[in-house]
């Protein structure tokens, strides 16, 4: 199996986002990764979902590993920026970061 450059995990549970918008973001992520050419090749990105990341507020939460960058309040627009700017171009979307490992 070819390695992944990054792994994106989206919280799809209802604690941090009572409207459960994380599920919509998880579905959208596949489309955005395909659009930016990040499904295959050396920059390919693995996506995953979890019912809880333990933050329980300001969701949906999106985490990018191995960078250790945690984004909060992610919208579809912000997810598009994360995919293009962070995952493709390597520039963290600083104004949306709430935690770094």
Describe this structure in words.
With 101 residues, this protein is an alpha+beta fold. It has one domain: 3-Layer(aba) Sandwich (Glutaredoxin). Helix content is 28%, strand content 23%. The protein contains 2 helices and 5 strands; from the N terminus they run E-H-E-E-E-H-E. The chain has helices spanning 21-35, 76-88, and strands at residues 6-11, 45-50, 62-65, 69-71, 97-100. It has a 5-stranded mixed sheet, covered by helices on one side. Strand 1, helix 1 and strand 2 (45-50) form a beta-alpha-beta unit. Helix 1 (21-35) crosses helix 2. The longest helix has 15 residues, at 21-35. The mean pLDDT is 93.
Helical region count? 2
- The radius of gyration over CA amounts to 12 Å
Mean pLDDT: 93
Q: Please report the total strand number as a whole number.
A: 5
For the largest beta-sheet, the strand count, sense and barrel status come to:
5 strands, mixed
In a few lines, what is going on in this structure?
The protein is α+β, with helices and mostly antiparallel strands and 101 residues long. The chain is built from 2 helices and 5 strands. The chain has helices at 21-35, 76-88; strands spanning 6-11, 45-50, 62-65, 69-71, 97-100.
């Amino acid at each position: 199996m070819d390695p992944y450059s990054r792994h994106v995990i989206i919280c799809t549970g209802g604690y941090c986002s009572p409207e459960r918008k994380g599920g919509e973001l998880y579905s959208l992520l596949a489309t955005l990764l395909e659009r930016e050419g990040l499904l295959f090749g050396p920059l390919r990105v693995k996506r995953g979902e979890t019912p809880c990341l333990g933050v329980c507020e300001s969701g949906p939460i999106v985490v990018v590993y191995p960078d250790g960058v945690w984004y909060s309040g992610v919208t579809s627009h912000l997810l598009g920026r994360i995919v293009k700017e962070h995952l493709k171009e390597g520039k963290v979307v600083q104004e949306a970061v709430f935690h770094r490992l």
